[in-house]
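Hi U.,

Before I forget, here's the chain from the pilot set. I'm dumping it here mostly so it's searchable later in email.
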Amino acid sequence: MSAGQKIDQAFEKLGKEKSLSFELDLDADVATLKELDASSKPAPGEEIPDEAAKLLSGAKISFTVESKKPLAESGEKDLTGTAMKVSTPSGDLFEYRAVGDFTYIRSDLKALNQVMGTPLPPADELPPEAAGLKKVIEGQWVKFRTDELTKAGQEFMQEPGAEPSGAPSAAPTLDAATQQKLLESVRKVIAREVEFTSADGADGAERITATAPARTLLKELLAGIRPLAKDLPAGMALPTEKDLKDVPDVKAKADFTVKNGALTEVYVDLAALAENAKVKKFGLSLKTSTGVTPVAPAGATTLNVDELIGGLFGSMVPGGPFDETGSIDGTA
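Structure:
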C-alpha cells in the first residue's frame, strides 16, 4: 500500500468513529508572531500587542464531537454533544458545551480584556438587571437554550428591514452525490501533484510527509472543483485566479502521523509560506484522539439571550456605571 493510500484510509477510519477529539496548536513563539506582523506593514498603532502575541503563541483549541452515527454519515440532528475550549498555559480562556437542549458557556473575560484592551465593568458595580452579565464577567458557567441562541443568531444576521421568516432556514449542505464527486476530484489531484515519503516514527507510528507546490496544488484543486460549482451551496464562492496570485509559489509540506491505521497528528509547516527569511519555525499542529463524552457542567446559571444582551447594553448607557466612553464614571 502506498503512503498516499495509507493517509486516505486513515481519514476514512476517522469518519467511521462516533466520537472524536481534536487539538489545534500554533507552533510559533512570540518573536516569530511579531516578525510576521511587522512584515505585513501594519499602520502605526495597529501592531500586534505583546500580550496578544503571547496569548496566540501559547493557545490551544480543543474540540470534541459525539454522534449517534458514524461522523462521516452524521448531520447536525445526529450530534448528541459538542464541546470546544481555548486554553493557555495560564488557564482556560473560553469554553462551551452543547448538551441536550442547552448550550453552556464560560470565559475568562479579564484575561481577554488584558489582551484586547477592551474595558469591562466591575462586576460589583453592575445594575440589578445585569445580574446575568455579572455571572459572565466572573467567569462562571451560564447556560442558554440552544434554540434561543440559534434564533438570536438568525435575527442578528438578518438583513435590516427584512421580514422575519417563520421557520429557520436549513443550513447549506452538499448532497451525497456531490460530496463523492468532490472527494474523487480532490483524490485525483493529490495523487497527481503531491509527493509522499514515509519513515518510521516513535512508538511504532509511521510518519508520512506530503510535499507539493502550494500555488500549483491550489490551482489544480480549484480546476477540479469548478465544474461542480453549480452543485455547491449558495454563497460558497470559490477563489479566483487573481486570488491565487497571492499564494507563494513555494513547496508546502505536511507531516501525517499514522499509528495502527489511525491518523493521530497532522503538522503543516507554514514557514516557507510566510516568505520571510527570519521566520524559521512556524507551523500548525492538529492532533486527534478518541472523543470524550461532553457533559453538562454543574451549577450553571440559566440565562436567556435577551437578558444577557439587555444587561450588556444597559450597563453601557451614558450615565450608567459603564458607559460608551469606556470608563466607570463617564470620563474618557
